[in-house]
Amino acid sequence: MGGITAASGGRNIDNGDLLSLQARMKKDPPGYEEELLLQLRHFDACISILLLQAPVQAPTGPTPAGESGPAKEVADVAMFLAHMAPFYPQHLKELPQKLLQVLSNYQSLQPHLRRQLTQSLILLRNRKKVELTQILPILIDLQCVGDRVLRKLAFLHIIHDIRRTNLKHKNEQFNRSAQNLLFNILKGDEEVKAKRALVVLAELHRRKVWTDERTADAICSACLHKSPRIMIASLRFLLGYDQEKEDQEEDESSDEEEDPAKLSVNVDRESIYKAYHKGTVSSKRKKQAKLQRVIRSMKKQQRTHSREMEQGSHAPLQHVVDPQEFAEKLFARLRSCNEKFEVKLMMMQLISRTVGIHRLILLNFYPFLQRYIEPHQRDVTLVLAAAVQACHDLVPPDAIEPVIRQLVNHFVHDRARPEVIAVGLNVVREICMRVPLIMTPELLQDLALYKKNREKAVAAAARSVIAVYRELMPSMLGKKDRGRNADLAAKPKAFGEVSVATGVPGAELLLEDTESENEDGEGSEDEEEDDDDDDEGVLTLEEEESGDEQVTSDLDGEEGEDEDDEDDDEEGDDEDDEGVELTGEETPVRAKKKRKVEGQETPGTPGTPMTPGTPGTPVTPSTGQSLRNLRKQAVSKSIDTSEIKSKDGDGILSNEDYEKIRVMKSKRAAKEALSDHGLTKAGKKRKETSVKLTNPDNLSGRRVDPAVLEAHVKRRMEKEERVAMVKAGREDRTPYSSRTATKQKKTGGMSNKQKNKRKALPLAAVRSKVARNAEMKRMKGRGKNQFRGKKAWKS
């Protein structure tokens, strides 16, 4: 029995004997039952001795390896019994309670004994001999001890145990009991325990184990805890969640391993062909780089959309039970707290995020922020980012107008520094994208004058403000700032106006696709008819030089297309969107030719473009739009959702119809992205600055990065600084010397260039060279005049 006798009572047994006894007992549990009872009685005796000792503060140092005593024996025997628990369930069913009883006096235990008993308790939990809810309070208490190893051990076991329990499916009963324990500890008065409970909840939420509303609401409620340390910890977690999520998305977007079935970009073949086969080498390289940027950006959008559709958003602020009450309570604490400015700044940021995500109305928050909008304010970009995040379309413009006025008066003026002006203009742009009704024509025209500023950052910021209102409300801009084809009737939605969907989003694409197919069919028939009249439609040179105006067309495949446009890679990248597109019987020919062939006179003035379907009706020049754009607008306005038919004609869209809508939306998005990057002719003609405006509902839920609002203006260096920089760049440079001197100083063998010159040529090359030299000599001698001697009469 390894020297173990009943008389000894199991005393004075070292760890090696226990390990050997443990191995033999696992092989034959019934044969070693008496030895187990001896070790169990020895364990009870050691526990009694420990509990009778006076509770004194234990030393923080580790127990030496050769130290003996009740503590060392209890640690070894406890681990031994924990390993034997699955083989002797009847005898060791009270072991977890005994370990919990000893660990309840953790303050008076030695560090080594605490760790060993905790490991034994964790081992019993892994063997399903005890529930987590029974050991969870003691594990939280053990994290409050100043033992870093023990704190990490207890913390990781809680996280891994809960994660392992919910790995296959959500165990709601287990989660509810564990959450109640942690929530009660978090709401308690003991600050250290409450903070450890908050850390556990935050880690479980970060690992997406507990993402329910109860956990999110508990984490957000910790911001209202009376302890400043717990409030600061909760604020940091909530504010850092969005930043961590953005970093993860950037890491995922940089990963090249993508599922092609899920991420597909419908770029037309014509754009791909022109990027790889048309133009010079440098122009093709530029177009290929732009095409790759378009594909990467669209794949990132698809990845983000698919992730939100599959998983949804797990941000804790989006799952607060009562966001209005939470924001009001936190704002009341902000106004009455005496914490540092950094803490106040975090509270302002969290309130603004809550207001933006849930689109709350907190009118007293904007005058509070107005006090900190000063150029000399510390971390003013964070305050301005909070002001931007708190703006959405449900906030009355009158409540934000004082903020805009103070921002413009204190940041955007002639005596301010360039970086201050740029920051002010950027903030104005972001606020106006969310609340466009706040801008007045006088203020907008004053801000537009900064587009001619000599500082590039200021001019770019001013042009971005102009670009926003080119899309939203061009009538507020001056005539020079509106751009081409500006729609003066465009204006943002009125305050409180809501767009209500009356049908399936994107269903009108099915009707447009049906009409385009019908038009293509008619166009093909008309082209066949026009092929028979090609001989009659040939124009002479005199007719071209006569100066008569003609109506141009964008129809593809026309034989009279200009050849210069095919060779020019810049002009031939896409169809001209500003041309006139005529379908059906209105096949484009010159007006003069049309009168000759048909024997009719057009009622309109020669050279006046005709509207589709109504010959002789000129386009109103005040609109400034081409006939193609007008036709598209008329088609979009005339679409009635009741006319949309499914594939079967019963009015119910099938899965094929939804898939077709998805593909058509993807094609339209790809076409817009190509135009934005200048890969189409319409995009190249757009010389003015343009911005891609996002839906205000999506803007209000996004986090505003303060770095985007900043402007980096390069300061002009003095002469001494420039000279110092030049000298610093010459330190590692070798002294100047001529090339001949460098070659003369060279030591070693010949260079590769010299070796290639002396390299023996192949036999065929040698013969060719000899024949070529002989031919050159023969040709050179053939051109000389032969000497025939002097003439006798000239001598």
From TrEMBL:
Keywords: Nucleus, Protein transport, Ribosome biogenesis, Transport
Biased composition (Basic and acidic residues): 640-650, 669-679, 720-734
Region of interest (Disordered), ranges: 499-652, 669-706, 720-762, 776-795
Subcellular location: Nucleus, Nucleolus
UniProt biased composition (Low complexity): 602-624
Amino acid composition bias (Acidic residues), ranges on this chain: 510-548, 555-584
One annotated Gene Ontology cellular component of this protein: nucleolus
Purpose of the protein: Required for 60S pre-ribosomal subunits export to the cytoplasm.
Family affiliation: Belongs to the SDA1 family.
Name the UniProt record assigns to this protein: Protein SDA1
Organism: Marchantia polymorpha
